[in-house]
Design a protein that fits this description.
about 325 residues; alpha+beta; four-stranded antiparallel beta sheet; 10 helices
């Protein structure tokens, strides 16, 4: 009998089953539906999937925060000044119980709670109401950790801009992200395989990451998906990570135009990483974007439009502006 997960030879791990419309539904909702239907093994597998999605974000944030520290030290920031800023952010981003932001212990606790919950589901040791309440507590614990992780990145990037100027954020991204991008996005390199062969991986990883960010107004990981003849458009309202930020939060947005932020003013410095990773860097490396990013833009008194990612079915359909936004020349023009 088919379960909720299957092995993907493409990705080398278990993934959720279902077409792209199904993938746009948050894993949190899939867990709840399985519990309500009494499909306990499926519910347990989906809890595992929820943690796999969360793991991707947690590992990325840990890797990046270490990289931002190295960049700041390399630019001459004193260890005492960096420690002071990290302590300030830890206090600013305190958890609801009052404890300062410290991710490692919270992540370990999250894993232990998820393991117990899945094990008790498999052992038929829970009623539906209890299981739903326990899972919602797990989701909320991840949201609390995730949001503080994202805000911590925004805080470090704001420090880069404050100390070394806004343009330095682009240098910071280039230094910190490129080793990560070379590993994660190598399978999209069209010098190594045809563009069409990258689409399945591209779409699945897009949905997986945004489900982990708990996108959507209810923070359940639901993605708005629209398919056109030539493209898929994924929209996040809000994104759940950078899309939550406003200038009033104290995290900087671009005041000038930069290739690494799509040459737009008002882009959260954290949000700019999507432009770098998905559009600017792959165009520089092999000539086509992985996804075309329209990040939220903060203008005076206006609510930003939802962030969107566009995945084109054929690279020839990518508009010329997608190249110009990141300072590149459109191919064939």
């Amino acid at each position: 009998m088919a379960g909720p997960l299957t092995w993907s030879p493409t990705l080398g791990k278990r993934v959720r089953v279902g077409d792209w419309a199904e993938q746009a539904v948050g894993t949190t909702r899939k867990v709840a539906a399985a519990v309500r239907d009494g499909r306990w093994e499926e519910a347990a597998q989906l809890v595992d999937c929820f943690m796999e999605e969360a793991k991707v974000c947690h590992v990325v944030y840990r890797t990046w925060s270490d990289g931002f520290d190295r960049y700041l030290r390399g630019r001459g920031l004193r260890d005492d000044d960096l420690a002071e800023e990290r302590e300030r952010l830890a206090r600013l981003l305190a958890f609801p119980d009052g404890a300062p932001f410290e991710p490692s212990g919270r992540w370990s606790d999250l894993g232990a709670r998820a393991g117990r919950l899945a094990n008790e589901m498999r052992g038929l040791q829970l009623g539906a109401d209890t299981a739903l309440a326990r899972f919602d507590e797990l989701r909320e614990a991840w949201r609390a950790l995730h949001d503080r992780w994202a805000d911590y990145q925004a805080g470090l990037l704001t420090l880069v801009a404050d100390r070394f100027g806004e343009a330095a954020v682009g240098d910071c991204y280039a230094e910190v992200l490129e080793p990560y991008l070379a590993e994660r996005y190598a399978p999209f390199d069209t010098r190594l395989q045809p563009y069409a062969d990258t689409l399945e991986r591209n779409l699945y990883l897009a949905f997986e990451s945004m489900r982990a960010h708990l996108v959507g107004p209810e923070r359940m990981g639901d993605v708005d998906l629209t398919e056109h003849d030539d493209r898929w458009v994924l929209a996040f309202d809000p994104c759940g990570s950078g899309g939550r930020h406003t200038p009033a939060d104290g995290f900087a947005v671009t005041q000038d135009e930069h290739d690494w932020a799509g040459n737009r003013r008002g882009v959260c410095l954290y949000c700019a990483h999507c432009v770098v990773a998905l559009q600017k860097w792959p165009i520089e490396q092999w000539g086509t974007p992985v996804r075309v990013v329209d990040p939220p833009v903060h203008a005076d008194g206006e609510r930003p439009a939802p962030c969107t990612w566009t995945i084109y079915k054929d690279p020839a359909a990518v508009p010329a502006d997608a190249y110009r936004q990141v300072g590149a020349r459109p191919p064939g023009r």
